[in-house]
Amino acid sequence: MSSPRRRRIESQSAPCHVLLGRKLIRAEPDSGSAELEFEARPEFENGMGRIQGGFVAAMLDSVMGAALSTVLMEDEAPPTLELKVSFVRGAEAGRLVGRARVVHKGRSAAFVEGELSTPGGELLATSSATAILVRVEPPGAR
After folding, report:
1. Of 45, 50, 74, 141, which shows the fewest CB atoms inside 10 Å?
2. Beta strands in 76-133, from DSSP E residues, in sequence order
3. Which domain holds residue 92?
4. If DSSP codes are grouped into helix, strand and coil, which group holds residue 44?
5. 80-87, strands of its sheet edge to edge
6. What is the pLDDT of residues 105-129, one digit of tens each?
7. What is the DSSP letter of 2?
8. What is the CATH number of the domain that holds 12?
9. What does the pLDDT read at residue 118?
């Protein structure tokens, strides 16, 4: 991966990414894919001792955004328009792995799929998203 695109993904350290313990494992522009690691903290647990679904959805949204970032131009940003999550089994606190790939990128919208699993490969949730592509001022253009 080219270093500017990798830096773009690694620099996406918004407070929500810090909260989720997000770490880039790999990003591949040729395949429009990404893999991230997350740290699901005990504070994310619901009353049943599993990670609350909103945190799982946030992790999936994050990894799908990273995959999409591998194919974006410098002046494009991809706000999520729609996010669908299918919960397969409850996630426990600890390390989780997210993988995503761009299904299609057009001129004004993109479609992405993702999954969240345990480090051992046990599937926890799947997702799909639609993002609108908006023009932004490239970094350093001011």
Report:
1. 141
2. 76-77, 80-87, 94-105, 109-117, 123-132
3. 3-135
4. helix
5. 23-28, 33-40, 94-105, 109-117, 123-132, 80-87
6. 999 999 999 999 999 999 999 999 9
7. -
8. 3.10.129.10
9. 98
